[in-house]
Design goal:
Layout (H helix, E strand, L loop, with lengths): L1 E4 L5 E8 L5 E8 L6 H22 L12 H12 L5 H20 L11 H13 L4 H20 L31 H11 L3 H13 L3 H5 L6 E2 L4 E4 L11 E4 L2 H13 L16 H9 L6 H15 L4 H8 L16 H17 L17
Helix pairs in contact: 2-3, 7-9, 7-11
């Protein structure tokens, strides 16, 4: 089922189905008035879905003979038990929250109790209910994706014929990724030093310092090895491994603060090829950084945004060089194969950043997570 807006601003509801010749046929089933209210549009949509359901049942009349009737509650419990050993603990915990919530909503709002009678417009109402509750659009898309995976499994178990939560049937909320509209969690060097002062261990301070003074993405930091860092020249090479960087590698001239934090990591954890690696073999860097920064209301990407803002503050109108340091694509006219690793042009930018960072450095004697003064 789909809908179109007519010239007189009325809305027509159509159903479509594949034909035997490999084409698609669409028929308009109902048309709402130009000044239709929300209740009338909902009734029209319900009637259109009923027609679509009847047409689908007509086309799949043979398949309905092989449907295994299953209660929606039992199907949810079976799927959670099956996924318990296949998904991560966090995904299983989310399923244990989402599926019972969805089942309860369906039973309390006139939804079908048999899984094969579940209709797409019920999924749409559940989506609208989540939007009214104020949930983030990305979270709602994740919930709908979990429900779609469950119903896809039900199709494989012959509990239903089609997946009513498929993206072709239900419009998922459009997610926005406007990072520039979000305020910075930390601003200025004084808030950075306040964050460093609140950290409890040398290792936590060194990890945060490396992320903040290099602008690395969390995936880049995870794959960073000691072989990529040359202490004699202070050059850090970043490779494109499962990240959204340029097609060629980039190099970052390490400022004095970054060198100091790398030296601290070298003294604390000298085992293994990775600079940050795991916390004594237990946690990967993404989990470590989240655990360290979450109590302070900061994310690893906030450190990257803070670093970019600091570079633009200390080195204005040098956006091309800053784009290269950050691994951003500056414009469409820049070709991916043109190498612009001008280390000598990058060094003054990093030096000015280091001077700006150390200008407001407080007196933190006795706090080990700050680089020693003789190193910086």
């Amino acid at each position: 089922m789909f809908k179109r807006v007519n010239k007189d601003e009325s809305i027509s509801f159509y159903i479509k189905w594949p034909t035997g010749a490999g084409g698609v046929r669409a028929v308009r089933v109902i048309r709402a008035s130009p000044v239709a209210r929300k209740i009338e549009l909902r009734e029209c949509e319900r009637e259109a879905w009923s027609c679509a359901r009847a047409k689908e049942k007509e086309l799949n009349i043979d398949a309905y003979q092989y449907v295994v009737p299953c209660d929606i509650v039992d199907a949810g419990d079976q799927y959670i038990r099956l996924m318990d050993g296949q998904l991560s603990p966090s995904s299983v915990d989310r399923l244990c929250r989402v599926l019972p919530q969805f089942v309860e909503y369906m039973l309390n709002n006139g939804g079908a109790r048999q899984i094969h009678k579940l209709m797409p417009h019920r999924i749409v109402r559940y989506r609208d209910w989540l939007l009214e509750k104020g949930l983030n659009k990305s979270t709602i898309c994740l919930y709908l994706s979990d429900i779609s995976g469950w119903l896809k499994w039900c199709v494989g178990e012959s509990y239903c014929i089609t997946n009513p939560a498929d993206k072709k049937r239900v419009n998922y909320p459009r997610r926005t990724n406007d990072k520039a509209a979000d305020p910075l969690s930390i601003e200025g060097s004084d808030q950075f030093w306040r964050l460093m002062k609140e950290l409890k261990t040398d290792y936590a301070g060194a990890v945060v310092g490396v992320l903040a003074c290099s602008g690395l993405r969390i995936g880049e930091a995870r794959n960073l090895e000691w072989a990529d860092y040359r202490p004699d020249t202070g050059i850090l090479s970043v490779h494109t491994v499962n990240t959204r960087t340029k097609k060629h590698q980039r190099t970052i001239p390490a400022c004095d603060a970054l060198r100091a934090y790398l030296l601290i990591l070298k003294m604390i954890n000298d085992e293994g090829p990775y600079i940050i690696g795991t916390d004594e073999g237990r946690k990967r860097i993404s989990t470590q950084a989240t655990t360290i920064l979450k109590p302070h209301g900061v994310t690893p990407h906030d450190l990257r945004r803070w670093f970019r803002t600091a570079l633009e503050t200390t080195s204005p109108r040098q956006f091309e060089f800053i784009d290269d340091i950050m691994g951003h694509r500056a414009s469409r006219t820049r070709q991916a194969y043109s190498r612009r690793h001008n280390i000598e042009a990058y060094r003054p930018i990093m030096d000015r950043f280091n001077q700006w960072l150390m200008y407001d450095k407080p007196d933190l004697s006795g706090v080990n997570v700050i680089p020693p003064q003789e190193i910086v």
